[in-house]
Design goal:
A two-stranded antiparallel ribbon of chain A has the order 1-2. Chain A starts with a helix and ends with a helix. Helix content of chain A is 65%, strand content 1%. Chain B is 20% helix and 36% strand. The relative contact order of chain B is 0.31. The chains are: A mainly alpha, B alpha+beta. At the A-B interface, helix 9 of A face strand 3 and strand 4 of B.
């Protein structure tokens, strides 16, 4: 097919929008941790931006979107180093636009995991997580769901026929249940459930949530890979579902806890954007509204599970992304309609029976089991070989200083100290030096 | 000389300052502090998890005064900082041995 200028422009724009989600996530997460670990959290996100980009062009794209090596499980090495992609066309856009768009998904999915291990892991262990997890978890999942080759592509999308428009399995259920495995292996923070671990900067959380909401239009509407009707459907659904979930989360808070909170409205918005991610191209706006109301309420409940079950998924990657992704995947099986997208399907409430719902459950269940199992193995290996945790002293006094020799905020002059080695510490020394130079 | 120290509610700061100015106090030091007393803390809720925050923010005011002015300053502080609810704070007075004005080197009452 010929390259469409309109489609290409939209996908390029969408890639840039999705790229911005990772710095947005850095703020969303960074504001939620304590003041002594804000930089470490943001650093984990930015390291994912750096490292996953390289992995993607070296071999990640090829293994995810190369010709299937059999059984729909993994691609091959035909595009290693992005060879044979320049000048090629994918649908109506240049292959390189598709490579770039998909790269930004791999980046943010990996960065999402950082929320499960806040405040406590060595940066070298995080780097190992990025490399191993992207290679053995993200890349196969992307292949399973999004490698289409007339029935010879990935097993979830192309063979089973389960629907996942923009990443309910690949991004959301994947990050959520991988995060659970990581949180279990890494262990709880010192003082968890005893000491207050309140968000240190909620305005930063809200700014980050806003950037994520904005970028999500690229994430979802960009996944149409064309600037047309389907992209418009995905965009309006994204807005409706995100808005509905933001409201239903704070409604739950109002009745359960007494007050609607800013962290709640930010979290609710994200849970809605998560739930509409797989479904935005298959449901109508009323379906999106239902999915959003359900996602906000269910996720608001799900984030409390960790206190009952005893795992420190610090920033609720499972509660928001894992559970929100499940809501969206199952929502497709209920309210999807071919009136929106002929390539989609009809859910239970649209007269499609249990067929689609069954496929959605199989895809979700297989994703949960695979990503939890493999991430758990990777995490145990990293813990044995490298070791995850910083020392207890470093964790209590602050991981920012320990791992990065920096602190996030310098709000007062009295503690700003002297520039080591320069030897010019105050006004009197400055005057003396001036006098010496004059004479 | 005396050092009058008061721990008060932050929102009473302006009332207290103007009350002290009215009785002729010419300088004071203010710091933001936190602590606990009979007031106890408050509860904050993040994603449904309740945290008891038991250190409450307060403002600390310190005034250096001549011996005979201390009582008036205490009275002004107490009446302007009071809301009649638990958590209004404390005022105390301690004797001061030496005060020096840094600029001039003046000592004692002259330095006030």
């Amino acid at each position: 097919m010929e390259i469409s200028a309109g489609d290409t422009a939209w996908v390029l724009t969408s890639a840039a929008l999705v790229m911005l989600m990772t710095p947005g996530l850095a703020m969303f997460y960074g504001g939620m941790v304590r003041v002594k670990s804000v930089l470490n959290m943001m650093m984990m996100c930015f390291l994912a931006l750096g490292l996953v980009s390289i992995i993607w062009v070296l071999y990640g794209y090829s293994l995810a979107f190369g010709t299937d090596s059999g059984a729909g499980l993994i691609g091959n090495f035909e595009f290693i180093g992005l060879q044979d992609t320049v000048g090629e066309v994918e649908g109506t856009i240049p292959t390189l636009a598709f490579v770039m768009f998909q790269m930004t998904f791999a980046i943010i999915t990996c960065a999402l995991l950082a929320g499960a291990v806040a405040d406590r892991i060595r940066i070298i262990a995080w780097i190992a997580v990025i490399v191993l997890w992207t290679t053995f978890v993200y890349v196969p999942l992307a292949h399973w769901t999004w490698k289409f080759d007339d029935g010879a592509g990935g097993w979830i999308g192309d063979r089973l026929g389960a629907l996942d428009f923009a990443g309910g399995t690949v991004v959301e259920i994947n990050s959520g249940f991988s995060a659970l495995a990581l949180a279990i292996v890494v262990g709880r923070r010192i003082g968890w459930r005893r000491d207050p671990m309140r968000p240190h900067n909620l305005p930063l959380v809200l700014l980050g949530a806003g950037m994520l909401w904005f970028g999500w239009f690229g994430f979802n509407a960009g996944s149409a890979l064309a600037a047309g009707e389907l992209a418009a459907t995905a965009m309006i659904n994204t807005q409706v579902c995100t808005a509905a979930a933001a409201l239903s989360w704070v409604l739950v808070e109002k009745f359960r806890d007494g007050k609607p909170t800013t962290l709640g409205i930010a979290s609710g918005a994200i849970s809605g954007a998560v739930a509409i991610t797989p479904s935005c191209g298959y449901v109508n706006p009323m379906g999106a509204l239902l999915i959003g109301l359900a996602a906000g309420a269910i996720c608001a409940w799900a984030v409390g599970l960790k206190y009952r079950l005893g795992y420190d998924d610090s920033l609720d990657v499972l509660g928001v992304h894992g559970i929100g992704g499940l809501v969206g995947m199952i929502g497709i099986g209920l309210v999807a309609t071919t009136a929106v997208n002929e390539a989609g399907g009809d859910g239970l409430f649209s007269g499609g029976g249990f067929d689609l719902l069954g496929k959605q459950l199989v895809a979700s269940g297989a994703t949960m089991i695979y990503v939890f199992g493999v991430t758990w193995l990777i995490a145990v290996a990293i813990d044995k070989v490298i070791g995850f945790r910083v020392t207890p002293e470093a964790e209590i006094s602050g991981i920012d200083l320990d791992q990065h020799a920096e602190t996030g905020y310098e709000l007062t002059d009295t503690t700003s100290g002297a520039f080591a080695g320069v030897g010019q510490h105050g006004l009197s020394e400055y005057r003396q030096k001036e006098q010496r130079e004059d004479s | 000389m005396k050092l009058v120290t008061a721990i008060i509610r932050p929102f009473k700061m302006e009332d207290v300052k103007s009350a002290l100015e009215q009785i002729g106090v010419q300088g004071l030091t203010v710091s933001e502090v936190s602590g606990f007393g009979r007031q106890g803390g408050h509860v904050e809720v993040y994603r449904g998890a309740e945290y008891v925050v038991n250190l409450v923010p307060k403002v600390k005011i310190e005034v250096l005064a001549e011996d005979e002015d201390a009582a008036r300053i205490v009275d002004a502080l107490v009446s302007s900082a009071r809301t009649d609810r638990i958590g209004d704070g404390k005022v105390w007075v301690v004797p001061v041995d030496t005060v020096v004005r840094v600029r001039t080197g003046e000592r004692g009452d002259d330095a006030l």
